[in-house]
Amino acid sequence: MKKIALFFCAAVTAAALTACGGSAQETTAAQTEAAAETTEAEAETEAETEAEEETKAETEAETEAEETEVAEDNPFNGQTVKVGCSATFVPFESIEMAADGSKTYIGMNIDIITDIVEKNGGTVEFVDMPFKSLIAAIQAGQIDFCSGGMAPTDERRESLDFSEIFFYPRNAIVYRAEDDYPDLDSLQGKTIAYVFGTNYQQVAEGVEGAETVGIQGSPACIEEVKSKRADACIIDGAGATEFLKQNDGLAMSLLDRTDDCFAIGFPKESPYYETFNNTLKEMMENGELDAIIASHLNEQFILD
User: Fold this and answer.
1) What is the side-by-side order of every strand in the sheet holding 93-97?
2) Is residue 288 helix, strand or coil?
3) In terms of Cα–Cα distance, which of 229, 296, 221 is closest to 252?
4) Mean pLDDT confidence for 104-128
5) Regarding predicted confidence, which is higher, 277 or 199?
6) 228 DSSP assignment
7) Exposed site from 178, 187, 194, 276, fewest CB < 10 Å?
8) How far is Cα 143 from Cα 138, in angstroms, rounded to an integer?
């Protein structure tokens, strides 16, 4: 009996040792598998980090390459140029006020000028002033050149150099919705408001028997019509479209395209003129200018 008991104990002990050995093997296998998974995850993370670093390096290289493309003798390179504009000319140039009181210049002309200057390594400081003051400000050296949607007339060419013509606007008659003025002839004998110092003055004064009133800025012209101090006003067609969105009870008639046009005015012998004009012509050829115009207006206004 004693031998049987000893044999039974030995068997139980062997079985216990065998079971413990199996558990240890399973634990070791699980640990090995977990370690392998951790190593694989670390490898993937390292690969992702390397890829991100490579992308960052490529981006920095591209940025550096773009920066080095601007020649050191480029007149805009590293310079801040002052550009005069008349910031009541929606949607070409206007001011957007933020809640904190800061202001941002926005509009088609603003985007075109900013794009050209930045392509040549410079920055822009826009200076808001009445349209009629732009030429005088250039001649006095207060600004480097001007936007303002200025047409390069023969008279203006006597004192300024102008860039390539980049836009042909269409004028519009804006009036109260209860009236109907489909064309300029329908305004005969009426009171017409216009923006003082612009080509709209010539259009208004060319209407037979009309009484014309010069106003500072397109928004003021709209108010003249709304308040019934004027029967209608003549302003830019694109601007008129924007004003009608914001003012109920108004209507407009879009006039045919004329010889009126936009160009950028520079002082005589400006160091910026040639570089600016060359970049503008490039943008006209590669479609960049059309894209800017279409983003603010529509394809009807794109040059043929």
Assistant:
1) 88-89, 93-97, 103-106
2) helix
3) 221
4) 97
5) 277
6) T
7) 178
8) 5
The answer to whether residues 75 and 89 touch, using CB atoms and an 8 Å cutoff, is: no
Q: In the chain, which residue ranges form alpha helices assigned H by DSSP? A: 2-68, 108-119, 134-139, 154-157, 200-205, 218-226, 237-246, 273-286, 288-296
Residue 135 burial (C-beta neighbours within 10 Å; 0-12, 13-18, 19+): buried
DSSP state of 3: H
Contacts of 86 (CB under 8 A, 6+ apart): 93, 128, 129, 130, 131, 134, 147, 148, 149, 217
DSSP per position, 111-146? HHHHHHHHHTT-EEEEEE--GGGHHHHHHTTSSSEE
Per DSSP bridges, beta strands 263-267 and 160-162 are antiparallel
Residue 44 pLDDT > 80? no
Neighbours of 56 (CB within 10 A): 10
First-last CA distance in the chain: 116
pTM, 2 dp: 0.61
Confidence bin at 11 (pLDDT 50/70/90): very low
Lowest pLDDT segment from 25-39, 96-110, 199-213: 25-39
